[in-house]
Amino acid sequence: MTTEAYQAFVDSTSLGRRIQEEMGRVDIQHPEEVERICAAIRSAFESTPFPPELRHEITGAYEQFAQKNAVRYSAVRSSATAEDLEGASFAGLQDTYLNITGTEAILTAIRRCWGSLFTPRVVMYRTQKGFDHRSVRLAVLVQKMVDARVSGILFTRDPNTGENRIIIEAGWGLGEAIVGGEVTPDHYVIDGQTQRLIHKQIAEQKIRLVRQPSGGNRREDVPTAERSIQKLSDDRIARLVSLARVIESHYRRPMDIEWCADADSIYIVQARPVTTIPAASESPTKAAPTTDGTAVDESPLVQGFGASPGIAGGVARILEGPSEMAKLRQGEILVTSMTTPDMVPAMAR
C-alpha cells in the first residue's frame, strides 16, 4: 500500500481533523499527555473502518497475491516518508506485524501500522528532529512470511565509527526479538576490504520468537544445546556479505539490512540507508582532563558494543525495563540490560 492509500484513508474519514487537532496540542515536556494523545489517535485508527472502495482495492490485491504465491502467513511492514533522512533514523520505531493470516487480519494490521505513526516514541523523535506530524505519511508492505530459523540485521559500514567494516547480528527465530531488544544476538565483524571475518562474539540466547500455527508469534525456550552455539555458520556469513555488497553497490551508499534464513536459503526482507553514520576516524580517544587540568585514568570498567557514539557524564540510574522509565530524571545515564524503542521518550530527557 502506497502513501496515497494512507492519505485516502485519513482524508475520507474523520482522522485527518483528529490528527491535526491532537498533534497541535503535543508538548514533549509533558510525556503523560503525549501518551494520552497518542493512545487516542492509535485507537481511532484501529476502530475506523476502511472506506468501501479502498477496502475493495486492498482485499482484491491481497487475495490475488496470496493465491498466486501460495501465501498462508504474511509480514505487514511499515515505511514512513520521514523514516530515513539525513540526520535522522526512524528504523524500528514504526510497527511491523509478523505471521498474519487471513484478509481481515491483514486489514487490521494495516490500520495498526498506520496508527504506529503516532506512538509516543515516534512523536517525540519527530518533534526533536523538527518534522511536521501532520505531513508525515506511511506506506505498508505485505510480504510472504519466511519461517525463519535464524534472523538478524547487517550494516555494510560500522554505524558507530564509520569504518569499512560489515557488522552482522544474528539470533534464533524471528528478527523482531533482536530489533525490539528482547535478546542479545551474536555479533560478527567482517573487514570491508578483504571480506575476512575478523571478530565474532557468540551470545547465549535462552528464548526465541517463532510462528504460531494459528497465526501470530509466540516465545519459546531455546533448547539448551543451541543456546550458546554460533547462530550463523561461516559459510552463511560469507553468503550474506556477498548479498550485502550487491545491495550497497545498487544504492551506492552504506545500508542497514534486515535478513532472515530458513533451512535452505537466506532472504533479504528490508534495506534502508544508514543515515547517521559518522566519518571514520583513526585518532585515538584522549583522556578527558579533570577540573584542575590533569588527565585521569580512563581504563574501561566494562566493555560492549556502542549503540550511539559519544561521551557523556551524569548519575547512573539502573532500571529493569520500559515500565520503570518514569524514574529516569533529566541528565541521568540510563543503565539497563537491553534498550527497546519504547524507551525513546525517556531517553529524550
TrEMBL record:
InterPro entries: ATP_grasp_subdomain_1 (IPR013815), PEP_synth (IPR006319), PPDK_AMP/ATP-bd (IPR002192). PANTHER family: PHOSPHOENOLPYRUVATE SYNTHASE (PTHR43030:SF1). Belongs to the PEP-utilizing enzyme family. It is an enzyme of class 2 (transferase). Catalyzes the phosphorylation of pyruvate to phosphoenolpyruvate. Its EC number is 2.7.9.2. Its cofactor is Mg(2+). It catalyses: pyruvate + ATP + H2O = phosphoenolpyruvate + AMP + phosphate + 2 H(+). Keywords: ATP-binding, Kinase, Magnesium, Metal-binding, Nucleotide-binding, Pyruvate, Transferase. Gene3D superfamilies: ATP-grasp fold, A domain, ATP-grasp fold, B domain, Phosphohistidine domain. One of its GO terms (biological process) is gluconeogenesis. GO terms for molecular function: ATP binding; metal ion binding; pyruvate, water dikinase activity. Residues 2-286 form the Pyruvate phosphate dikinase AMP/ATP-binding domain. It comes from mine drainage metagenome. This is pyruvate, water dikinase. Pfam families: PPDK_N (PF01326). Pathway: Carbohydrate biosynthesis; gluconeogenesis.
